[in-house]
Amino acid sequence: MVKIAFICVHNSCRSQMAEALCRHLAGDVFECYSAGTETRPQMNQDAVRLIKQIYNIDMEKTQYSKLLSDLPPVDIVVTMGCHVACPHLPCKHREDWGLEDPTGKDDEVFRNTICMIQEKIFDLRSRLSDIRTL
């Protein structure tokens, strides 16, 4: 199985949502992780609420904020678009999704971010055979 890590600064919102959605939507092909260069004691509660409301996934039961050093070796690294220098994480494929942080914004912004994450997971899954040949 291909190991994928979603990386963001605090590992509390976008990367956590991506981990949960990837496991839910593509867990048959990806082993999903998320991490950050820093951690937060609690995940973004709007992200937790909306992922539970839309997908019936309780992120707080299976996920927590982690550091890059907590990750196993991965095949794919996806950065969320944090606009900071991300430390090098060895991988076979890397891409940046350029997603704005919805923290502090209304539910519509969160829902749009969730929708973009879902679309990007489906796209990544469809490109997986191409990525494996890199």
TrEMBL record:
Keywords for this protein: Arsenical resistance
Top-level lineage group: Bacteria
Pfam families per UniProt: LMWPc
Biological process, per Gene Ontology: response to arsenic-containing substance
InterPro entries per UniProt: Ptyr_pPase (IPR023485), Ptyr_pPase_sf (IPR036196)
Residue ranges crossing the lipid bilayer per the database entry: none
Phosphotyrosine protein phosphatase I domain segment(s): 2-127
Disulfide bond as UniProt keyword: no
Protein name: Protein-tyrosine phosphatase, low molecular weight
